[in-house]
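Cont'd.
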Amino acid sequence: MVRLKDVAHLAGYDISTVSKVLQGGNIRVSAEARERITKAATELGYRPNLMARGLRTRKTGAIVLGLPRLDHPMYPTITAGAESAASELGIVLFVYKFPEDGAAEALINLVLQGRADGIILAAEMANGGFHELAKQSDVPVVSLNRSDDQVAPSVVLDDEAGFAAQANYLADLGHRDIAFVGANEESRSNRFCEQAFLRTLAQRGISLGNDHVLRAEFDGADVEDVVGIILGLNPIPTAVAAASLAMAIRLTRKFESKGVRVPSQISVIGYHDAAQSEWVSPSITTVSMPSYQQGQLAVRRLVELMQGGDVQLGETVCSPGEIVIRESCRSLD
Amino acid sequence: MVRLKDVAHLAGYDISTVSKVLQGGNIRVSAEARERITKAATELGYRPNLMARGLRTRKTGAIVLGLPRLDHPMYPTITAGAESAASELGIVLFVYKFPEDGAAEALINLVLQGRADGIILAAEMANGGFHELAKQSDVPVVSLNRSDDQVAPSVVLDDEAGFAAQANYLADLGHRDIAFVGANEESRSNRFCEQAFLRTLAQRGISLGNDHVLRAEFDGADVEDVVGIILGLNPIPTAVAAASLAMAIRLTRKFESKGVRVPSQISVIGYHDAAQSEWVSPSITTVSMPSYQQGQLAVRRLVELMQGGDVQLGETVCSPGEIVIRESCRSLD
DNA sequence: ATGAAAGCGCTAACAT
DNA sequence: ATGTTAGCGCTTTCAT
C-alpha cells in the first residue's frame, strides 16, 4: 500500500503539503511542488485510504440506495439514473438489498457506522419506524414515491399526470366504455391512480360505473379473476387501463387465451415501461415514467441535504410520463 | 456519536477491556465486567465506528457484487443468494453497478481504497485486463460463470447438465425433429450449450442438421429472423429449444402471431427461469438454474479466499438445473 | 509556501 | 483480569 508518507518522501515535501495538493483544492502551493507531488503520486500509484480519511473527515463519499428486492421492473432504471448522477458528483453509489427483518436498523447502521453518508430509500418501509429513527440519528434520507407525510424529502413520479395521460390517450382513441384495473398494494401511486384516471375521463365527459373500477396484484398474479369480471360486463368495455406493466401484459395474454383479441376486440394500456413490453405480441402500449430521472434527482437531492443545512421536506416531482405507442391499443374511429 | 471511551466511562472499565468484550470473542474477562460493559453499550446505543476499526484491522467487513447492469433476469436471484450467505457470515453485501469505462479500475479501487474486502464479478470484463490488475494488487476476486482461463476462482452453473436436461426433456416427450437457438453473445454458457445439447440428443439417437442449429440475441431482439428460418424448414420441427428465457418467450409469441400454435404445432422450451415465464400464455416450460445457490457459493468462496492463504483457482460447479414444466411443450405420444 | 503536530476511534501487543 | 500504550493514514490548525 502506498501512503501519503511515501509520496511525500519521493516528492521531497511534507506529508501535509502532499495532502493539500492531492485534494486538488485552491490552496497556495508553488507550481513546482504541485507538479512534483502529482508526478510522484501517479508514479507510485497512490490511492488515498478512505478509512483514514473518513475517520478524520467523518465522510465516506458513498451513498446507499436501499431496496427490498431487485426484481421490481423499475429498479434497474432508477439505479442507472442514480448511478449516473452519483458518478457525476464524484461519489460512489451502492445498492443495498436490505433484510426483511430489522430493515430500518440495518439501513441506518450503514450510515451510523460509517459505511455511507446518506440513504435513498426506494420502498415503503412497513414496520420499524424508519423515519423516526433516521431523524433521531440525524441520518440523511431521501424517499422515493412517498408523499403521505412530511417526514423526509421525497422524489416522486408525477403519477397524477401519468394516469391523466393514460386516460386521455384512450379517450383520444375514441374509447368511451373503459375498465380500470388499479393495484391492490398500498402505495402512493395507488392513491392517485384511480382518482386521476377517473377525474380525467370525467373531464372528457366519460364516467365509469363502479363495476368498471377493479383491483389486482401489482405483478398481475390474479388477473384471471379480473378478466372474468370484465368479460362479464355488458357491454364488454372497449378498453382496459392497468396500473402496472405486468398487469397489462398478463391481462392481454388472458384475454387472448379466452379468445378475445387485443386490440381488435379490446384495447389494453399499461403503466411504466420496460423491455418486456416488446417481448409479447401484441406489444404493449404503455405510459413510460421517467424512472431514470427519478434516480438522478434523488441523488442530487440527497447530496444537497447532506451538504446544505436547511433540510427541506416535501416532494420533488419528476417530469410527466409519455405514452409509448405500440400495438395493444386501437383507435375506435 | 457514542465512542468506546463513553462506554468505558459508564461501565467503569478501560477502553481496551471494553473493546475486547464488545468484539465478543473468547477473551478472559470477569462475568461482571462483561455484563456491565454490554449493558452500558446498549444503554448508550453504542455502534462501532467502522472506519476507525478498519483503519486498524485493514478489513471493512463488506464485499461487493459488481454488475454491469441490473436488468439481466438472473441478477436479482444471484443477488438474493449472495445476500443471504453474506448476512449469515455477518458481512455486508453491496451491489455496485460499475461504469462502462474504467470498470476494472473502479472496481479494484473499491477494495484498494478500503470500501470493501473483496469482489464478486458477475460479468465478463471485455477490456481492461481486470484480472491481471486484481492479481497484481492482491485483490480477492471470485468470478461468476467464467471458466476459459485460470486467472481467478470462479463459480459456474452446470450448463452442460442444464442443456443436457433440456435435450433429454424434449426427447422424452417424443420429439425427434428439433431446432436449437443458441445465443450470439460470446459467453461461457455459449460454448457449452450447443455442444451439450447436441451431444445429448446424439446419445438418444437424434441428430440435428446444421440448418437446425441457429443463433439469436440473448434478449431475443431478433427472433423474427429465426422464426422465419424455422418455419422455412421442411418439415417444420416439432420443438425448439432456446438458450435463454427471453428468446423462448419471444419465439413463442412470434410463432403464435404467425398462426403457428404453441405447443400444439410446435413446442418451445427456454433456459433459466424468472417470473416472466408466467406472464405469458402459454406459460413457458424452461430449465431453472440454481442462481440463488450460485450467489451463495460465490460469497462463501470469496470469504474463504479472503481468509485462507491458499488461493485455489478453478471452478466451483453449482447443482444441476431442473425442468420446470409449464404449458409450452407437449408430448408427441 | 511549507512544515510540525495533534488527533479522529479503534485494536492489539504488552505490561501489570 | 484489567490497563497502558502505540499506532493505523489521513486532515487540518497553527506556526514558521
